[in-house]
Every structure is written in C-alpha cells, then in structure tokens.
Q: What sequence folds into this?
C-alpha cells in the first residue's frame, strides 16, 4: 500500500487490490465488535500458559465471527493470516500456538483442510501429540468460538482455555527449524490465496 491511502474499504474491488489490508481491517473490526472482556481481569483468573491459549482462542473466535458475518470476505482473512502470525516473529512460534492458530483458522473457515495437513503430520511426529489430542483441541476450539466473552460465556471460555492447557503437550525447549519452515510455507500459501 502506497502512502496512507488504501481507499474505500466498503468497496469490494478496492479490497481486492489490497487483500491483506482488507483482512487486517476485518480482523480488527471483529475485535472491536465482539471482544468485550477485560483481558487484564481474565489474566488474573488463570495461569499464564492458559491465558496465552485464551488469547489465541479469542483470535479464532473473532475471525469465526467475521466469516459468519461477512462470508464473502473470508478470503481477506485468509490473506492476512501471514501478517497476523508474523507479528511475534517465527522465533516465538511453538507447536501449541501454531496448532491452535492454524487448525483453529481451518475450523472457523479462514483456512482449508489442505492448508493444515502438513502441520498435523508434523505434530503427530512430535512427543506427546496424537490424533486424539488434535480432536480434543478441535472440540475445545469449537465450543470456545461459539461463546460470548462475558458472564457465564466468559467463565466457560476460561475453563476451556485451562482444559486446553492440560490437553496439549508441552513445547520442546528449543524451536525446531522444521516448524518454522512448515509454518512459513502454510502462511505464504494462505497469503497467495
């Protein structure tokens, strides 16, 4: 995008010129519309590892709401996946985090099953990961994304993040180069559409 002018973001032709910007705009708009919980209060109610998963699950929840609200714009969310995941840099990726974010994006309709098959194969070769664990993760994601983030819904979201924290195997001490390459390929493919 040149300068600070993107154009009319309500015009689909304009969005198609800048699909990543369109996806980022939709992602942030969905946070503004659907993220109502005070994360500092949520953080106090759970362990740091469970809270990290809560934050990742919330990313999926808002993108899922975006797909439901604007199904024709799912491609823009797909295009922005790389930018969103690269924010923290590959050196901060982990098996747990990439599994939740990428498998979850497939679950809510941003990515496709073919996109995440290489990641699932990789995970199943890692210590502690099984098909059962991947299915349990999907069940948690499925329930979490349907809840509102207030009242009893928020309480259940916190329980689900804590449950997921106990389900998922702990990450190895060092990041494997294979994970960085694999996720990089998935993200590049998503950005290309």
A:
């Amino acid at each position: 995008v040149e300068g600070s002018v993107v154009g009319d973001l309500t015009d689909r032709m304009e969005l198609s010129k800048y699909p990543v910007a369109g996806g980022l705009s939709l992602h942030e708009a969905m946070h503004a519309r659907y993220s109502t919980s005070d994360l500092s209060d949520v953080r106090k109610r759970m362990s740091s590892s469970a809270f990290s998963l809560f934050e990742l699950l919330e990313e999926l929840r808002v993108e899922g709401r975006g797909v439901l609200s604007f199904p024709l714009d799912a491609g823009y969310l797909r295009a922005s996946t790389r930018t969103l995941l690269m924010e923290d840099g590959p050196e901060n990726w982990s098996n747990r985090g990439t599994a939740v974010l990428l498998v979850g994006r497939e679950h809510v309709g941003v990515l496709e099953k073919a996109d995440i098959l290489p990641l699932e194969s990789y995970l199943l070769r890692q210590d502690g990961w099984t098909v059962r664990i991947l299915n349990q993760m999907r069940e948690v994601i499925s329930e979490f994304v349907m809840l509102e983030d207030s009242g009893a819904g928020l309480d259940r979201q916190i329980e689900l993040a804590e449950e997921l924290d106990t389900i998922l195997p702990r990450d190895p001490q060092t990041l494997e180069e294979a994970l960085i390459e694999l996720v990089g390929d998935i993200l590049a493919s998503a950005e290309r559409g």
User: Anything to note?
Assistant: The chain is about 70% helix and 0% strand.
